[in-house]
Amino acid sequence: MDPVLLVVSIMVSATPILLAAIGEMVVEKSGVLNLGVEGMMITGAVMGFAIAVGTGSPLLGFAGAAVAGAALSLCFGVLTQYLLSNQVATGLGLTLVGLGLSALIGSNYEGQRAPSLGRLDIPLLGDIPVLGRMLFSHDVMVYASLALVAAVWAFLRLTRAGLILRAVGEDHESAHALGYKVVRIRLAAIAFGGACAGLGGAYVSLVRVPQWTEGMTAGAGWIALAIVVFASWRALGVLIGAYLFGGVTVIQLNLQAAGTTLPVEILSMSPYLITILVLVIISARGVHGAPGSLGRSFHASS
Amino acid sequence: MDDTLLRLRGLTKAYPGVVANDDVSFDIGASEIHALLGENGAGKSTLVKMIFGLVQPDKGEMVLEGKPYAPSKPSDARQSGVAMVFQHFSLFNALDVAENVALGMETPPPLRDLARQIREVSEAYGLPLDPRRTVGTLSAGERQRVEIIRCLLQEPRLLIMDEPTSVLTPQEVEILFQTLLKLKSEGTSILYISHKLEEIRTLCDEATILRLGKNVGTCTPRDVTARQMAEMMVGSSFAAPEVRGGEAGDVLLECRALELPAPGAFGTPLRELSLEVRSGEVLGIGGVAGNGQDELLSALSGERLAPAGAIWFKGEDISRKGPVARRALGVLSAPEERLGHAAAPNMSLTENAVLTAARRKELVSGGFIDWAAAKGFAEEVIARFDVRTPGPGVAARALSGGNLQKYVVGREILQDPSVLVVNQPTWGVDAAAAAAIRQALLDLAGQGAAIICISQDLDELMEVSDRFAALNEGRLSRAVPVAELDIEKIGLMMGGAHDMEVAHAAG
C-alpha cells in the first residue's frame, strides 16, 4: 500500500466530518444542541453539487452549500430560539427534512459528474519528496478546514467575542443579566454551524465521491455530533477525532480490498468503535466541560 | 446633603397584578452609603433593576450628577458609572476569574493586563483573589469578591449591592464592610439593599424604607433604633392580635435541640433548634428569608433525616423516618417553592394530588392508582380553595403562582393532618384567597391539629399564630405567646438579637 496515497485519502475522508464537527462545536459552545447536522450536510451536498454542475465552478458550489446549510439551520434557530421549541426534537426533524429535501432536489442529478476541484500545490513545500505530495498537495478545502479549526480555537480562546459566546453557553441567565443578547449570539452560532455542515456535505459530493447519490452522507453528521461530545468541546479534540475516524475508515477499506480474514461487518464497524473508544479514553482524563446551558431554552423573563 | 449623586423622582413600575414601585423618590448623596430597606416583595429589587437599566420605569425620572439618566440597558448604566453586584451572582462557573471579570466590563483590556489589574485591585482592597482560578471552585464569599472587583475595575461612582451579606459568613461580612467603607472614603456612593437592621445601623449613612412598593420614610440609621426601623419596614398598622380562646391540648410535635449541617454551599445549618407545638395550636415562625426556613421545613417533613432523638411525634421518635412514613403518621408539610418542590410542574393537578395524598386519601389500591378517586380529591381541593383552573387535568405549571399555592396548601389541609408544617402559605396569593387559606389553617387547628406556620409576612403570623418564634441564622428564639408581643420585641427577635433578655438589658 502506498503510504502517500493512504495519507492523502485519510485527509480527504476526514475533511467533511471535521468541517461539520467544528461548526457544531461552536453551536454547542453557545449552548444550543442542534441534532440536525446530518440534514444540513446532505442539503449542503446536494445544493453544492447542483450549483457546481450548473455553473461549472466547484468553489461557487461550496459557497452555495454553505448558504444552504446556514439557511436550513436558521429555520432551526427561529424555531428553537424565538418559538422555544424543544431543541432535540427540532434537530431530529431538521435531519429528516434535510434528507427528504435533498432527495427531491437531487433526483435530476443522479449519475452526473461534478466539475473537479483542482489541487492546490503549495510552492516549495509541495516539492519536498514524499512529504510534499503527502501533506502539501491537496485541494483548497482541506487547507480551509484546517485553517477553520485553528481560527475557531483562536476565536474561542483569545477573542472577546469568543468569550461572550462561551459565556452565553455556560449560563444564559447570567449573560442576560450582564446585558448580552443571548438569542442573537446563538442565532449567529447556529448559522455558522449550518454553513460548516453545508461545506462538509459539499465536500462529500464534490470531492470525495464526487457525484450525487441519495443519502450519500451516510451518517457522517451523526459521527460529527459524537466527536464534539467525546472531544470535550475542544477544537484540538475535534481535529483528532475527525482524522482518527477518517483514518480508520480508509484503513479498513484497504483491508477489505486486501481480502483479510476478518469479517467485513467488524471492519465496517471499526471506525465508529475505535473513534469513540479513543475519544472516551481522552475525555476520561480531562474535564468534560459540557457548556452549562447546553440544550436549555432561554426566555428573557424580566 | 447638598452634593447629590443620584436623584430619583416618582419612579413607578407596575407588573400585571402588582405595582412593584409606586411613586418612589429619594436622593443618594456623593460618598454616601445609602440603605434600601424593606421586607421581601417590598419592591427593592425592581427599583435597583430600574437604576441598572434591566427594567424601564413606567413613570418617573432619574437624574445622575445633574444630568437626566435613563439607562435602557445595563451597559448604558455601566458607562454612566453605575455598577451592580447581584444577589444571585451573574458568574460563569466554568470560566476563570479574569474571564468573568472581562465579561462584566465594557472595554476590557487584554486578559494578561486584566489579570494584573485584578491582582492590584484585590490587594488594594484586601480582597485576595487569584485571577486564574476557575469560578466554580470558589466559595460564596470569593465569588462575591469577583463581582465586586468586576465593578471596582470600572471605577464606578455608584455601586449597587443587592443583599450582599445573605450568603456570607460573619468573617466575610466584616471584610466586605471594610471594603465598602474604604470605597466610601474614596468618594464612591453605595446603594446597599438589605433587610438586616443591625447591619444597616453599623454601615449606612442614610436609609430609605420601602413598604409595598412605596417609600415610607427616610432615616439616619445611626440615630434610630432597630425597633423604629422595623416599625417603618413592617408598618405599625398590623392588627392587634386578639387572644383566642380554647386551651391548647397535648404536645403533638416536638424538636429537641435539633442540629443539622447546612445542606449545601448556600444553606443554613440548624443550630440547637427546640420547639413544641400542641394540639389546637398554631406556632408562627418568622424571620428574614434564608435564616433556615427551608432547612427547618425539610427537617420536619422528613426530606432530610435528623439525628435520632431530635424530632418526636406524640412521644414517638420520628427523626429517622422519611417523608412517606411521616405522612402516614399524619405529619404533613407544604414547602415554599411551588414549582418543583410542592408540585411537579408538568404533571396534572390530579397526578400532583396522588403524589402527596396517595396514602392518606387511599388513592392507591393494590399498587394501582384509583384515578376516579384521585380526580375527585383534586376537584374537592379546587372547589374548597377556589383554585381558578379549567379542571384537574391541567398541568401544575399552567396555574398562576397564587392559584397553585391555593392548590398545594389545600391539598395538605384536606388530608386531615395531625401536624401541618407550611412555609409561606400565602406567598403571592391575593388578599381574599390569603384570608381563605388562613381561615382554613385556623379551622384545622380548631379541629385539634397542630400547625407550624413559617412565614415572612408578619401580619399573617400575628393573625394566625398562638405563639411566635423567630429564626435567625438557624437558631430559633423562644416561642412567645402572640398576645405578649409588641413591635419592638418582634423587631429584636427578627433582627438578630439571639437572646431577648440580653438584648433588653443592652437596649
TrEMBL record, chain A:
InterPro entries documented for this protein: ABC_transp_permease (IPR001851)
Pfam families (alphabetical): BPD_transp_2
Topological category with respect to the lipid bilayer:
Multi-pass membrane protein
Superkingdom of this entry's organism?
Answer: Bacteria
Q: CDD domains recorded for this chain?
A: TM_PBP1_transp_TpRbsC_like
Q: What is its main location?
A: membrane
Q: Where in or outside the cell?
A: Cell membrane
Keywords recorded for this protein, A-Z = Cell membrane, Membrane, Transmembrane, Transmembrane helix
This protein is called: ABC transporter permease
Q: What species does this protein belong to? A: Salipiger pallidus
Automatic annotation (TrEMBL), chain B:
Note the CDD domains from the entry: ABC_Carb_Monos_I, ABC_Carb_Monos_II
Domain (ABC transporter): residue spans on this chain: 6-237, 255-498
The positions making up the signal sequence are: none
| Name of protein | ABC transporter
Organism (species): Salipiger pallidus
Keywords, alphabetical: ATP-binding, Cell membrane, Membrane, Nucleotide-binding, Repeat, Sugar transport, Translocase, Transport
Q: Which InterPro entries match?
A: AAA+_ATPase (IPR003593), ABC_carbohydrate_import_ATPase (IPR050107), ABC_transporter-like_ATP-bd (IPR003439), ABC_transporter-like_CS (IPR017871), P-loop_NTPase (IPR027417)
Pfam families named among the record's database cross-references: ABC_tran (PF00005)
Q: Does the keyword Nucleotide-binding apply?
A: yes
